[in-house]
Amino acid sequence: MRVEVGLLGESVGRLAEVGASPVGGGTRLALGGAARAGRDLVRGWMEAAGLRVRVDDFGNMVGRRDGAEEGPAVLLGSHCDSVRRGGRFDGALGVLGALEVVRALNDHGVTTRRPLEVVNWTNEEGVRFEPAMMCSGAVSGRFAKDYVYGRTDRDGRRFADELRRIGYLGREADRPAPPAAYLELHVEQGPVLEAAGLPVGVVEGIVGITWLEATVEGRADHAGPSPMRLRRDALAAAARLVSGVEELAHRLTDAVATVGRLAVEPNVINTIPGKVVMSVDLRHPSPEGLETLVAGLEKLVWEVEARTKVHIALDRFWTSEPTSFDPGTLDAVRAACEGLGLPFGRLWSGAGHDAKYLQDVCPSAMIFVRSAGGLSHCEEEYSTPEDVEAGANVLLHAAVRLAGTV
Ligand code: GLV
Ligand code: MN
Ligand code: MN
Question: What integer pLDDT is reported at residue 196 of this predicted model?
């Protein structure tokens, strides 16, 4: 039994047309118009593959294929929201790869012992509504419903209102029940597999991530008559913070640190910036490493405050602890690679994935597909059809091992 890349490539391509940019990638921010159109497409494909589709109170979409037995399903999936100007594979591959698994089982008339479910998680990226992996986190008990519903985007629109607006507010009773196992196929988004010359990887865990917001308060004033010594320039201070954050990561092995969003007020040419709000994303494979980065950032804030006349408030609003996947589920993925005669790597993920929160409630694992140039969260993200096919077949055979057949 095999997944052929043709159909999978076609559905990835068609989903990518929704919110597409001329350069190959596109934008499907969670609960926006393009995300809704993408959901409608995926729902249609799920139904055409014979899945019974339901939508839960976070907008998570689940398609069920019965097994010979009742009871917990083997859950396969990922997300179809994207970052701004993202690639076509991040997330989509895991949902559409899972759909292809169902089509292959249908084509071969295979009945699995356990039910199979395909899931499209809402708001994995956390770009429009922070934090990331929000709705797998909600279903896993990590985030309260009120918290999720009350999250707002940069225009002040509430998650709950947007979910209702796009017609994907479902029922609490339709949340995915704790699965027997969870598998997520994803592009690597990093350089490890390419450097090793390997098409696929068995993902043994996900690094720790913490997100903070720094608010730098200075004083807006005229850019001409205000002498340098009297200024409280929030952006000049924020610039020190941005370079300091980069330094923090250079000083600690395996650390990465990023300032990815910055809002400057009033953001005009001839006014000294009075306020800057910026994000800080810190990551490390160990909990101690993550805390070292946070402590370094706090010290940096004191130093910048001492050297300038601004005030800086730090809000650490999300932490996703380093997580190892389940050994038994990893065994199933390795056995699938071996059965297919595919050379595979073993690695940790530097990106967050819904599998992190699923591991809280059930045995979970991930499969990576080699990323060309290691690029992702940009429009140049690319994986070859051969590698995509290899990854989807690992997903198929690992799923069959976990679900069993009759
Ligand atoms: C999610 O894609 C993350 O790692 O930020
Ligand atoms: Mn992703
Ligand atoms: Mn992503």
Answer: 98
Q: What is the pLDDT of residues 250-288, one digit of tens each?
A: 999 999 999 999 999 999 999 999 999 999 999 999 999
SS3 319: strand
- State the distance from the centre of ligand 2 to the C-alpha of 185, rounded, in angstroms: 9
DSSP for 268-292 reads: -TTEE--EEEEEEEEEESSHHHHHH
Q: Are 314 and 299 in contact (CB under 8 A)?
A: no
- Alpha carbon of 349 to ligand 1 centroid (Å): 10
- 366: tokens are 């991930």
- pLDDT at site 25: 84
Q: How far apart are CA 298 and CA 235, in angstroms?
A: 18
Question: Which residue do the tokens 């690695």 mark?
Answer: 347
What is the CATH T-level fold of the domain 208-319, as seen in this structure? Answer: Alpha-Beta Plaits (3.30.70)
Q: Give the start-to-end residue ranges of the domains of the chain.
A: 5-207+322-403, 208-319
Q: Find out whether the beta carbon of 351 lies less than 6 Å from any atom of ligand 1.
A: yes
**243 burial via Cβ count (<10 Å: 0-12, 13-18, 19+):** exposed
Instruction: List the structure tokens of 370.
Output: 């080699």
Half-sphere exposure of 233 (CA within 13 A, CB side): 19
Is the full-model pTM beyond 0.85?
yes
Please report the atom of ligand 1 found closest to the CA of residue 350. 4
Please report which confidence band the pLDDT of residue 24 belongs to, taking 50, 70 and 90 as the band edges. Answer: confident
Task: From the CA of 352, give the closest atom in ligand 1.
Answer: 4
- Residues contacting residue 346 through CB under 8 Å, at least 6 positions apart: 201, 202, 204
- Paired tokens of 348: 């940790």
CA of 309 to the centre of ligand 3 (A): 37
Superfamily of domain 5-207+322-403: Zn peptidases (3.40.630.10)
Distance of alpha carbon 332 from alpha carbon 225, whole angstroms: 69
Closest atom of ligand 1 to CA, residue 83: 2
In the structure encoding, which two tokens stand for residue 225, read together?
């008559």
242 lines ligand 1 (CB under 6 A): no
The partner residues of 208 in beta bridges, in order of sequence, read: 284
Report how far ligand 2's centroid is from the alpha carbon of 79 (Å): 7
